[in-house]
Write the structure tokens for this entry.
Amino acid sequence: MLDEPTSGLDSFSAYNLIKLLQQIASNCAILCTIHQPSADIFFLFDKAIFLKDGQVVYQGPTVGIEEYFASHGFTCPLNHNPCDFIMNLCQSFSFKELEDNHLVMLLPEEYSSDRQSTKTFTIESIQFTFEASFLHQMQAIMYRGWLDLFRDYSTLVARTARNVVMGLLYGLIFMNIGHADNGIPDNIQSHVGAISMILMISMYYIAQSGMLNFQIERPMILREYVTGTCKLNSFSKVYVMFDSISI
Amino acid sequence: MYFVVTSWLVAISCNSLALMLGVSVSKTSTVTELASLVFFPQMLFSGVYVSTENIPMVIRWAQYLCSMKYGMNLALYNEFHPSMPSCDSDPVSASNCAAILASNNIHSSDIGMYIGCLLSLFVGYRVLAIIILYQKAKKFY
């Protein structure tokens, strides 16, 4: 069973697809809905069903469909796609008018909706079950974070380059400050300055990379929670515990 | 060697604080606006720009929440403690080193406390982050 297999395809691809389906149909029955087939595609089908308001307007072979409608007073114009013509017909006329023109095929007695159906169907309520265990979920999330770290190539390169450049910069600016004579006030001021700056950059860069991770991953987390793949609990624990690995 | 460890401890505790900030808001633009709230208090309370004695009593308590203060104290002690060769060479250097340690109120007995404070800040901010995430999750669904 196929639902609009040709939607989005150009006419040649659609034709080839239906031709393939026709070959497959020699071994099995294929049922599909189709949207605006061109005339050559329409006649590749063996049978067609047209529905309006839940009732069948036409059910039968595609060959001879124009004659059937012509016999009821609706002639398909020349060089006009019969399928489009019938669709226009069904939508232009009300159901009553079609019925008056005997264009509505009545259902056989046993399928009539007036008769009480003896078959009843119940749909069981859908249960949210978390299939994987907590540890398993955590493992999967951690592995995904690990892969994410190394696959984001440009960020990795930028981060390495930044660390190298900043290291060189600080090394050159504060060169030999540690061995300078602490008696001179300038030296000691530079000494303290060097220590504070190094601590500051180590603080700044690592904190900055940890800040935006949550926002970036939030849509993914929400999607997985809604589909029941992961509990929010496991996300929060993994995220908080192992985020520092990026240092 | 000790300096590297200090630097690492400061980094992870500041990461925890930034993480707590990051999980408390949903939008990226809000986070970038609030980012300076994480970094600048750390720099201000570390004792580099203004001596902690000069900060008014009203706000002085906030220095204990900043990991940078403990990191600076540890690093300064490591660099300027009295038995360092650069501080021992002549009396002027020795007095300068002692002055730095005194102005930041660093005592050798407090070293263990500073390390403990850094680690507890690291753990504490992460626990707060989990609590915030939990509250947000309850409100979401």
About this structure: Chain A touches chain B through 40 residues (CB under 8 Å). Chain A has ten helices and four strands. The mean pLDDT of chain A is 77. Strands of chain A lie at 2-3, 32-33, 47-52, 55-61.
